[in-house]
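Input/output pair, single chain:
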Amino acid sequence: MRAVAASLAVATLLVIACGGGGEVSISDAWVRAAAEGQNSAVYLRIENDGDADVLLSATADVARMSSLHQTTFEGSVVRMEALSTLEIPAASVIALEPGATHVMLMVLERELVPGETVPVQLYFEHAGVITVDAEVRALGE
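Output:
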């Protein structure tokens, strides 16, 4: 009986220590096809079933550099601004999509060909590192 009670206590502590109240999941990840040396972008859907989190950064081995960006429109002028982080509210869904927030991949190390996949690492403040395989697609697919 004591062993069962001790096991339950340990399991409860592990759930509390690990945050146990939901999780961040990624779906619909894709990256725009582009030539070596050019820039590209990663688009995806972040679903947060738990407490608020923060996307701190993202990396992909296919690019020399990557950063979070947001496209803004001021009249007829389109601008891209680098974001230091991206807030992920509790119980929310955030879409990174063309013409909006995205992960910019700068100076590609190789060509990205439609149909292949590219591993992308997303670094969250609480959820930790989540690696997704983003499908390479031609823009407009």
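The domain at 22-137 is CATH 2.60.40.1890 (Immunoglobulin-like). The helical segments are 2-17.
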